[in-house]
Amino acid sequence: MDILIAQETELHQYETRQNRDAIKRLLHADFSEVGMSGTSYTFESIVTMMSEELTTHLRVHAQNYSCDKLAPDVYLLRYQCALVGQQGEACEFAKRCSIWVLAQGRWQLKYHQGTACAPFELIVGS
């Protein structure tokens, strides 16, 4: 589902992560996350964490998306991602999954999990 990929990608952007209105639009009020470190986050704790982020030269590279319908208004989005530096060096490889729900007429991220994984080949153009 293209809208879910677009919204997931939007959450990778520093500008979005610094914009509380955008975060409230994209994240469900009951949002929860288990990060790559095993740390658990709630809506409020993730908003706080994002607001404290500093700009970086790293960008999120995501690829190999797949989407499964779990219920009429619930989808599971899965993909691989890595952080990539200006010279193309990649680090922090992860497999990620997100559960998106249709709430009040808009798609919102309700659950997200990132699991560290072995490095993989980056697909150019993803």
Automatic annotation (TrEMBL):
Pfam family, one: DUF4440
UniProt-listed InterPro entries: DUF4440, NTF2-like_dom_sf
Record domain DUF4440: where: 5-109
Name this protein carries in UniProt: DUF4440 domain-containing protein
Organism: Pseudoalteromonas rubra
Record lineage: Bacteria, Pseudomonadati, Pseudomonadota, Gammaproteobacteria, Alteromonadales
